[in-house]
Amino acid sequence: MAIYTKTGDKGETGLFSSDRSKKIRISKASLRVEAIGxxxxxxxxxxxxxxxxxxxxxxxxxxxxQKHLFEVGAILAGVxxxxxxxxxxxxxxxxxxxxxxxxxxxxxxxxGGGHGxxxxxxxxxxIRRAERRVVSLSKKEKVNTNLMIYLNRLSDYxxxxxxxxxxxxxxxxxxxxx
Length: 178
Description:
Blueprint: E1 12-16, E2 23-27, H1 31-52, H2 59-76, H3 87-101, E3 108-109, H4 115-138, H5 145-168, E4 175-176
Domain Cobalamin adenosyltransferase-like: 3-164
Family: Belongs to the Cob(I)alamin adenosyltransferase family.
InterPro entries: CblAdoTrfase-like, CblAdoTrfase-like_sf, PduO-typ
């Protein structure tokens, strides 16, 4: 498979149409491509964060997230697949389990900590941006609402993973007191 096709040299890219046998061409400046790109950025940054994690029990969780983000991107690109609707509830259970071990939140905390935790906090901001892009797209075109629910819960999940990573490294959180 060739890495370069030259089909995007004029500022367009191919997406799937409702008739899966055909691809459609759309501008790379479209809201849909912007949403897909933001999901890709979040996915890539999660991979970077994982490479810095000292607590390796988190890495398999990140790989699963990355697989799901590929599904989100594929769905946004027109591929007719379904995401598991139970993913947000599964993340909520894991958040609750990690939260039982973490210091109780009484204030906002400053993002940071160890390398892995800090990068996970940053990844959460990429996920939030992807969510905003998908919401913007949904105001103009039909978007599967499960994608927005997933991305919203995912940012909470990655926030908790960042806290958990720092906790496992013995790094104290810094409270923000306005």
